């Protein structure tokens, strides 16, 4: 092909080439737009991800109810109000009771709000059945329920801890209006060992009873070393408790009563497998100040 012929050929082909180039530019523009849309969508999803991560996988409903009621002594179980955790909303009434006792399974408890250590995540292995009488339900249980509700709404762990601690400082959460009791007679719990100092956790079988001891120190009442068989005080402040462990015989009976329940928990999560109790030293479990 001569030079002049090539020029003429090119002139004939140029409109097609220009159309092809225009198409390529449009395709590239579309690719950029799609990429931007994808990035924006991914960014929005990433912003929502923490809220999803804040949610804890609930227990089977029947197991959660049984575990919650195990916190109470037998004579109070049938007429107590029981709550279950709805990860999207917080705690909900599973059964309305008549005896003014309330039971539920804490998955992010008030103890996680203690201390200066940062709450960087909502642990999915924390689990402890707890109950309150009417006085405790009004003053202390609401902290657990506020935590669960804010967690369900997507509040970050660190922000939630800041909010709760700020409420304590401002006396938003008050002491129980009278003497009262919180039963924690369940055969198993997993929670923080010394939340005033660190975020270490442990699984233990230590059925116990807690009496409200607001703003009382262990020294004030001549309390024993935390974890001993004699009463001692934990969680100093408006929601402090004096704790009394059950004896080895009573603990063994409770473990026997709930063998099937404990087996179900152990199948769900290894951290919930009950330790074998042989009268071991419980000091590491309750060393709260």
Q: What is the H/E string?
A: HHHEEEEHHEEEEEEHH
Overall structural class, as computed from helix and strand content, comes to alpha+beta
Number of helices: 7
Distance linking N and C termini: 96 Å
Largest sheet: 4 strands, mixed
Low-confidence stretches: 2-14, 31-49
| Morphology call | globular
Spatial strand sequence of the major β-sheet: 2-1-3-4
Radius of gyration: 29 Å
- Beta-strand share of residues: 15-25%
Average per-residue pLDDT, rounded, comes to: 84
The percentage helix is: 40-55%
- Number of β-strand runs: 10
Domain module count: 2
Please outline what is shown here:
With 289 residues, this protein is an alpha+beta fold. It is 40% helix and 16% strand. The protein has a four-stranded mixed β-sheet, with helices on both faces. It has a four-stranded antiparallel β-sheet with strand order 5-8-10-9, with no helix packed on it. Strands 6-7 form a two-stranded antiparallel ribbon.
Helix/strand layout:
Blueprint: H1 3-53, H2 61-69, H3 74-77, E1 81-86, E2 90-95, E3 102-106, E4 128-132, H4 134-152, H5 157-169, E5 181-184, E6 189-192, E7 201-204, E8 208-212, E9 232-234, E10 241-245, H6 248-257, H7 259-268
Plain-language structure description:
- The chain has 289 residues and is an alpha+beta fold.
- The chain has two domains: 1-53; 61-272, no CATH class.
- It contains seven helices and ten strands.
- It has helices at 3-53, 61-69, 74-77, 134-152, 157-169, 248-257, 259-268; strands at residues 81-86, 90-95, 102-106, 128-132, 181-184, 189-192, 201-204, 208-212, 232-234, 241-245.
- A four-stranded mixed β-sheet has the order 2-1-3-4, sandwiched between helices. It has a four-stranded antiparallel β-sheet with strand order 5-8-10-9, with no helix packed on it. The protein has a two-stranded antiparallel sheet with strand order 6-7.
- A hairpin with an 8-residue loop joins strand 6 and strand 7 (201-204).
- The longest helix has 51 residues, at 3-53.
- It is globular and about 45 Å long.
- The model is unreliable at 2-14 and 31-49 (pLDDT under 50).
